[in-house]
From TrEMBL:
The modification Pyruvic acid (Ser) is found at residue 192. Catalyzes the formation of phosphatidylethanolamine (PtdEtn) from phosphatidylserine (PtdSer). It is found in: Cell membrane. Keywords: Cell membrane, Decarboxylase, Lipid biosynthesis, Lipid metabolism, Lyase, Membrane, Phospholipid biosynthesis, Phospholipid metabolism, Pyruvate, Transmembrane, Transmembrane helix, Zymogen. This is Phosphatidylserine decarboxylase proenzyme. The gene is psd. It comes from Neoroseomonas terrae. Its cofactor is pyruvate. Its EC number is 4.1.1.65. The chain crosses the membrane at residues 22-55. Binds 1 pyruvoyl group covalently per subunit. The lineage of its organism: Bacteria, Pseudomonadati, Pseudomonadota, Alphaproteobacteria, Acetobacterales.
Length: 224
């Protein structure tokens, strides 16, 4: 059963963001096969295989329990601590618990909503591209931040952060969207970080070093 689940994840259909890369790699392979030789053909094939793996978008099943805050991405937790949400979101300057998840190039990079709610603000901040596993990446790196209002009036933030290799953040969510926990909302290419700033008074259940499964792993309970 474990092997079957692993194969399903590896062989999952790619995210739509993979299309230009797959077309480019396929064209290179075809050109190599017809004109330029085997070296370009195999280079194109390897590139296509890498893109199919990197952009894989497996289905996820969120817990059937209300009031959960879920991991917004696969990867491992590199930081759990108090921090101020990105100022551009207008959520105030009071520190709250932040859970930071680092995604290596081997992780699924599709981002998922951590909880039910309404997107109230989206703000893009241009910045650096230091390694996303460093704590300063939350403040210094290029990022896309979303503020989400919960049904009970509280709020949280989820932030897509570019990394050392990542140069492109894609976000499909829009201000005013009603979202559900586990719902896809974007992707980051290639290697990155995703932070969640919990509502005031909510304690994290995640711990540093813990492995996350986006849309499934519980990182906090809103009632706690």
């Amino acid at each position: 059963m474990a092997l079957e689940q692993s194969l399903r994840m590896v062989l999952a259909p790619p995210h739509p963001a993979a299309r230009p890369f797959l077309i480019g790699g396929g064209a290179a392979a075809l050109l190599g096969l017809i004109v330029l030789g085997n070296w370009l053909f195999w280079l194109g094939v390897i590139f296509v295989a890498f893109c199919l793996y990197f952009f894989r978008d497996p289905e996820r099943v969120p817990p059937d329990r209300p009031g959960m805050v879920l991991a917004p991405a696969d990867g491992h937790v590199v930081s759990v601590g108090m921090a101020v949400p990105p100022l551009e979101l207008g959520l105030g300057d009071a520190p709250r618990w932040r859970v930071a998840i680092f995604l290596s190039v081997l992780d699924v990079h599709v981002n998922r909503m951590p909880t039910d709610g309404t997107v109230t603000r989206i703000a893009y901040h241009h910045g650096k591209f230091v390694s996303a596993n460093l704590d300063k990446a939350s403040d210094e790196n290029e990022r896309n931040a979303l503020a989400i209002a919960l049904p009970d009036g509280r709020d949280l933030a989820v932030v897509q952060i570019a990394g050392l290799v990542a140069r492109r953040i894609l976000c499909d969510a829009k201000v005013g969207d009603s979202v559900q926990a586990g719902e896809r909302f974007g992707i980051i290419r290639f290697g990155s970080r995703t932070d969640v700033y919990l509502p005031h008074g909510v304690l994290p259940l995640a711990r540093e070093g813990q492995t996350m499964i986006g849309g499934e792993t519980v990182i906090a309970e809103l009632g706690a």
